[in-house]
Inverse folding.
């Protein structure tokens, strides 16, 4: 599974809010060959609670899991589609080339090795297009629903991040104002004492 721009963005948002490196955690999971199902069942909190004791980070962790599962489903669909399109007795070299090139280009998150592609061609795109054509109507509907849910969750997440930033800014402004008030309260008596001393010295030397 490749780290797409969408997944990278989700990981970056998580990193900014939690102060940890989610990408390193995901690669560590891949090296230890932990399955995605195990991650969903047991370790949704592991990515958050390992670094931050806050339930609000669950949004970002779940978003990362959703993107990963969607990418895996797309990859699985693109692998299955060429096998279905083949006839029982014939083997087409173009299909085999496309499947091999797609497997070369893909990075399996749950294996410790990365495969380096020899040639980059446009064949994997054709395979993905063919897979989308073979999808059933209910599958398309469920996919649309999941996409809408993801959009709604993304909007909620953006609003939550914005509100938290505004709160932090307001808190900083209040702290600065308090500090200034304390400084003035402390400095005022000192200034007054200094003025008195100067007046006394001036009176003595008259």
């Amino acid at each position: 599974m490749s780290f797409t721009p969408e997944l990278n963005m989700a990981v970056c948002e998580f990193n900014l809010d939690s102060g940890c490196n989610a990408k390193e955690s995901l690669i560590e999971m891949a090296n230890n060959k932990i399955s995605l199902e195990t991650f969903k069942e047991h370790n949704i909190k592991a990515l958050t609670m390992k670094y931050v004791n806050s339930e609000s980070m669950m949004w970002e962790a779940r978003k990362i899991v959703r993107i990963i599962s969607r990418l895996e489903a797309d990859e699985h669909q693109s692998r299955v589609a060429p096998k279905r399109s083949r006839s029982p007795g014939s083997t087409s070299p173009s299909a085999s080339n496309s499947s091999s090139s797609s497997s070369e280009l893909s990075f399996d998150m749950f294996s410790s090795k990365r495969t380096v592609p020899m040639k980059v061609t446009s064949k994997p795109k054709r395979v993905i297009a063919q897979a989308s054509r073979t999808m059933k109507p209910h599958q398309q509907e469920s996919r649309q629903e999941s996409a809408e849910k993801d959009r709604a969750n993304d909007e909620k997440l953006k609003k939550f991040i914005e509100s938290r930033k505004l709160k932090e800014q307001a808190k900083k402004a209040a702290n600065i104002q308090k500090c200034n008030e304390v400084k003035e309260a402390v400095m005022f008596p000192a200034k007054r004492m200094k003025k008195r001393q100067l007046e006394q010295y001036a009176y003595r030397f008259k």
Observations:
- The CA atoms of residues 164 and 170 lie 10 Å apart.
- Residues 5-135 form one domain.
